[in-house]
Each structure stands twice: as structure tokens, then as C-alpha cells.
Amino acid sequence: MEKMFYLAELIGSLNEACTMLAILFSMAMAIGWVGRVISTIGEDYTEGDKKAFKQVSKYSTIFEIIFILAALILPSKETYLLMMGGRVVDLTIEDNPQIKEIPEKTIDLLNAWIEEETKNIKEENEQ
Q1: Is the four-CA dihedral 93, 97, 98, 100 of positive or negative sign?
Q2: How far apart, in whole angstroms, are the C-alpha atoms of residue 4 and residue 18?
Q3: pLDDT tier at 91 (50, 70, 90 boundaries)?
Q4: How many domains, the chain?
């Protein structure tokens, strides 16, 4: 059980890191593209500057795509816990036979509540 929570924390942290890196590379890509546009308009930029802006925009775009895909593939901590929740319930039911009685008791309780409410509604309508 502790391993599941540790894994959820780890995967959640990786998801958050990939999201933050994607944002960082988005900013770098924007700087690269703005630099490319300004360097083509301005006369003060050398060919080396233009090449540097081109490389920044190209590589930051590639890394941004990689980190966006990683953030989409890796589930967040909450999503992972929801996915693993069913497995925990299955393990709990296998280990504890009293839990199998809970659905039957719940249905009996709901039936008793419905009957009581139906009886109250009928009494109110008769008055």
C-alpha cells in the first residue's frame, strides 16, 4: 500500500516537472521566434545571431513537444490514485470477508429508508 502512495507521489511529481519544463521551453521558443523576427528586420544582427535564434527556437520547440507529450502521458497524482483505487478495493475485499456483506446491508438499509419515506409521503397526502 505504501508503495502505491510512493509511486503516486513520484508519478505526480514527474507530471508536474514535465508541465513546468514544457512551460519553460515554451517561453524559450517564444524568445527564439521573437529574436528570429527581430534579427531579420534589424540591421545590427550578424549571421551568428540569426543562427543562434534559429537554433534556440528549433531546439526549444522539440523539447517543448517532448515534455508536453510526457505530461499528457504521465497521470497526475490524483488520477493515478483514482486508477489504483479499484485495485485497493479488490485487495481489501479479498482479505476481509465481512466487507462482502456491506452491499447486502446497504441495500437492506436503503429499502427500509424508501419504505419509511413512502409511508411518510402517503400519510402527508392523506391529510
Answers
A1: positive
A2: 21
A3: low
A4: 1
